[in-house]
Amino acid sequence: MTEPGPYLRASGLSKRFDATQALEDVSLTLHQGEIHALLGENGAGKSTLIKIMTGIHAPDQGTILVRGEPANIRSPADAQRHGIAAIYQEPTIFPDLNVAENIFVGHRERGTVVRWRRMYREAESILATLGVHLDVRALASGLSVAAQQAVEIAKAISLDVKLLIMDEPTAALSAHEVSRLFDQVRHLTETGVAVLFISHRLEEVFEIADRVTVLRDGRLISSNPRDEVTPQGAIQDMVGREMADFFSRSEHQAGDPVLRVEELGREGIFSGVTFEVRRGEVLGLAGLVGAGRTDVALALFGIAPADQGSVDLGGRPLIPRSPGHAMRRGIAYLSEDRLQRGLSLPQSFTSNITLPTLRRYVSRLRLLDSAAERAVADRFRRRLNIRTPSLRTPVERLSGGNQQKTMLAKWLNTQPAVLILDEPTHGIDVGAKAEVHKIIDELARSGMAIILISSDLPEVLAMSDRVLVMREGRQVGVFVRSEATQEGIITAAMGAA
Amino acid sequence: MPEWARRWGWELLLAGILIGVLILNVSLSPFYLGVQNVINTFQLSIEKVIVAVIMAFVIVNGEIDLSVASVMAFSASVLAALHAAGAPFGLAVGAALLTGAIAGLFQGFFVARMGLPSLTVTLAGLIGFRGAARILVEDQSIGDFPEWFDRLGQDPLVGRLSFGLLLFLVGIVVAGIILHRTPFGRSLYVIGDNSEVARFSGINVARTKLIVMTSSGFVAGLAGVLFAARLGSVRGDLGQGFELDIITMVLLGGVSIFGGSGTMVGVGLSILIVLNIRNGLGLARFAITTQTGVIGVLLILSVLVPNLVSRFARRRHRGPGPAPPSGGRTTDQGGDLRGREHESQQATVE
User: Fold this and answer.
1) Taking each helix axis from N to C terminus, what angle separates B89-108 and B205-231, rounded to the nearest 10 degrees?
2) CATH class label, B7-308
3) Chain A contacts of B198, Cβ < 8 Å?
């Protein structure tokens, strides 16, 4: 080991996005030769922290010192100059370049003429230090994800990396590949590189990390040497949120089953999902990002149909072919992605609400009756308390919370039997969130069957009658309301003992 | 900005430009606004303006059709070749119209079902259908059509209006109603703005695109037949280069090249402006190249001005900072969960 000392010292980092305080007063020191693990639920602020370190976001407050000197990291190029590199779950590789070209792609100071032979030699020697054997002349597109990651690490080494940030690098790897990756990472730390390692797999974190830091709600909760942390302790720190300010469901009785899903699956995406939802019931779907919750919803809504198992809706089998078909059978899906899948931003408040049901508002000549459209939009504006300057205002001018409620209105207007809500309160402020919770409760009371996908554990627990937990595309447990705890759910979701 | 100004700002600007152009032209020739002169102005470009109406649908839908002029030539060539081969003339006309629709359907299949970019598909169509037209008529000029057909293309049908002009006037009104007052028209805008939102709202995106591309081919075929009737003969280079004039009219009319916005009123005004500028510059004896230059400048301004305005508005909104490219969207940081966890690659691109 070369002189072990702090390489990067972040102090008091804060960052706010609209309604969300993504990071609040986070201080962290990354030492040379140390593997520092970062844990936290979805949305705990891990990604924001990484993006600040790699120059993609600028912090609202706080400073970063690199080797004791203030570092102004304003762009990925700045980060590169400070020896900071990041690799992600999906390698950012150029598929049509070969291995050596990918390794040296970031080098601009090497002159205009490519000295191929020298480049191949150096690429081979870098890969050798990692203990990786790859044909440096092979096209990157033919490599496995694991090999592509090795190329990314080699690229970082070629750029003289001093701090390597690894964001869920193991998510797409097999157990054998993970152990090879860890060998490569240990090679790196022996040369004095600091590593910031993010993973949702606790056992991996405890295998490789020297230090474990937990973030929750944008704040740093704990940061301790690995030997002083237990998996149970880490989970406690991740989930210890207050539930006090959450809406409490009113008393009600669930009715007959509306939707029955049997061994549902889609090749390579998810499998073995079995549940039923009753009238007036809220079924929570919990799990980490990428656990397959949204994929189940997309299968039910006919976007990416299932190829295994069966669905029964209202006593009749359902094989959803398209969103239109699913809608006609009474399924509505409120997407987690308001901007890319939910709303047409330049279109008016009214047209967004009536979009799925346009054919209801045609007159005898098959022309749109805009007065009827506006009447419906106005009804939802009052009922859901949506603040919009006018019924004709483009939705891009509404706040996030009001956009979210507009989406809710759009789907309620289809009068679904089963309403699937995917992260319905994501990125909206506390007041709007409480209103959405109240609406969900009212809808359930009126007899709608609701599937609630949420990464917000207290929300899932407060709103759901039962919680189905998924991990890596599989259903790993169903908790009834009285037995569900944050610890139990996160333990199931992360696969920790 | 009040709501009406936001909605109709571009159309008002176009109306202002049109009035300016008309005043200039009247000052050049006091007879400029005479009925016959107005009709002649249209008659000389009638095929282009008819195709411009359907092109507005294509571009609002977020696509482009570069092949229209070649499809015109191809359809007209089918008509001419069948006629020369002695087929009944009605059959030849029917076959020509069908040719246009099939050409559109063929391209639409690649765009809507295979998901290829319409720019590439219709560029291939531009080359391919032009080639097909040249093969059919070689380097001849095929004419000798029945008298009624030539008269249909040239003579007034109702009052002083020719068949083509009537077709255009009825067509643009019907098209405006379809675009602005039907579920189909509404879905065109949403698909053009964001086809994922349309798909997640239960709209059959592929079928809609197929209908639009097929209609574009059909209308181009119809325009080709009209052109044959007006000229009285068909050559392989019929309508060559028209696609650029047609697209210019639509873009100048305020239809965004990125899809999802624009009005038929704007397209109508822009058609009037382009026709009158050409006519006026002709009256003032400017060369054709100068006319084209002036229209080119207008087109650049029509794309530039709205972008500058929105950039300026954004800057006032958010304070100084680089404005995102037009048509692109700023990523809402609170928006997408998946995005939030793995958005780094995306964020560097933006």
Assistant:
1) 150
2) mainly alpha
3) 344, 355
